[in-house]
User: Fold this.
Amino acid sequence: MRVVIFVLVAVCIVAVAVGKRFCSSQNDCLKGECCRNNQLRGKRSVYGVCEPLGNAGSNCYLSLFQVSEGVYSSCPCVRGLECKGSGLVEVPYGEMGTCVRPSCKSAADCGPDECCVNPNRPRGKKKRSTGYVCQSMKNIGDGCLVSYGSGVPSSVGFMCPCKAGLTCTPSGYSDMPLGPMGTCTSGLVEKLSPR
Assistant:
């Protein structure tokens, strides 16, 4: 019994030192977090620790294993990412993977305000056509390519253009072979008149 109490106290001290919050369900955690408890051996605890959802490159499991109501063995990926399996299986959790952007073939496969891009930088005239992913359309202040215009493109490019209603204002710089670069603006240019 003393050992169990000692272990519980040690876990509490470590959790407080690391800044983790205990939880008994998803409702105890903040937005962007999940209630996680990966103790699947021996007696199961109904409590978990609030941990952040998986970002791009984070480890994940293809299937979520629910330890108890609202408590999971691992956190899922953030919205807009999916868990891509590696082929390795960890018993009892299942196939391990990495959080990545979902693949696409055209803008129709992506969400609203997203387009389908080929993240492989073009080199010369040769186009690489593998690994298309969905990315967010550019907002005010984001870098853009003037030739891409604005709104959802009909074809796959290297980066998304500015959102509809925004303009890619040239910056005076150019990228080879992509062409003139700029910044997404509202398109409204204030004219300064001398007073």
